[in-house]
Amino acid sequence: MADNDRTRRLAVVLQLAQKAENDAAKLLQQQRAQWMSDVNQLKQLHHYFEEYVAQFSSVRGSVSTETLISQRHFVGQLENVIETQSERVETLRQQTDRAERFWREKHQRRKLMEELIERIRLDGDHIAEKQLQKELDEMAGQSFIRGQKINS
């Protein structure tokens, strides 16, 4: 009986552990999606930068000095944006790693809780089997004693 109460209480704790794991999984999924989105943005920036520089190099001799200065300034701004985006991608990667470790911790905690509940249930079944066997042995013993008394 005490094991059943304990198992019921632990089932509530297991539900809480499952909710914590699910919440951590959602957070991890959001972090990964944001990180992947930012990685794609960074790739697009690199691609745009390469195309712009290639185009800039091909028309270099046929443009005015002011246009060259303006284009170099724009290339510098693009480099700054790429650097900022690279830093953001790295920060998001670190956050995603932390979210994954957090999820793994919650996942492991839930698994351990399930194993504990199963062990308690199995131990309870084993104890109940021993109790039943003891009662059956007592009944058989009493039956044997009654049979002895009747035959006497």
Write up what this structure looks like.
By secondary structure, this protein is an all-alpha fold. The protein has a single domain (about 1-110), classed as Helix Hairpins (Orthogonal Bundle). The protein contains 2 helices and no strands. It has helices at about 1-60, 65-150. Helix 1 runs antiparallel to helix 2. The longest helix is centred in the last third of the chain and has 87 residues, at about 65-150. The radius of gyration is 35 Å and the shape is rod-shaped. The protein starts with a helix and ends with a helix.
What's this model, at a glance?
This protein is mainly alpha-helical. It has two helices and no strands. α1 runs antiparallel to α2.
SSE string, helices as H and strands as E: HH
Annotated CATH architecture: Orthogonal Bundle
Strand-residue proportion: under 5%
Work out the helix count.
2
Give the CATH class: Mainly Alpha
Mean pLDDT: 88
- Per the CATH scheme, the topology name is Helix Hairpins
Helix content class: over 70%
Poorly predicted parts: none
